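Handout, page 2. Input:
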Amino acid sequence: MAFYYPPPGFHFKVEFLDIQAVENDILFQSVSGLNVTVQTETIKEGGENRFEHVVPARTKYNDLVLKRGVLKDSGVIEWCRAAIENYEFKPIKVIVHLLDENHATLIKWELTHAWPKKWSVADMNAEQSAVLVETIELNYNFFTVNHSPPP
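Output:
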C-alpha cells in the first residue's frame, strides 16, 4: 500500500483570465484568503428557554491577498490601477493552481467576479536588503475547488 503525502504549499501560480497579463504575472510569493465561513442565524422558540436554534444563513468569503516582488511591467497592476485610479472596475475570474513536481495542477480554486480592492507597496528601508513587495487584495463572490484526477 502506497503512502499518501500531502502536497507542499510552496509550488503554485495565480492565473488572471480576461486581462492582458505578462509572463511573470502568475508568480507570487504568497496567497492567502482562500477560506469560506458559513454565517448563522439564531432562532428563539417560544416557550423553550433551554436553548436557541442556530441555523445556516449564507456563506462569506474572505478577500484574496496576493504578495510578490514589485514588477516593472505588469498587466495585473495595470488592471488594478484602472480600477483604483479611474474607477473602471472589470471583474474577472482568477484561478489559483497548486502544482505538483511536474508543474501540473493538483488542485485549483476558481474565484468568480474578482476585482481589486486594495494595492499597496511595502515600506522602503535603506537599512535592510529586502525585496520590495507589493500586495494586491481582491474581493470576489465565491470560489469553487477542483481536484485533478490521480495519475
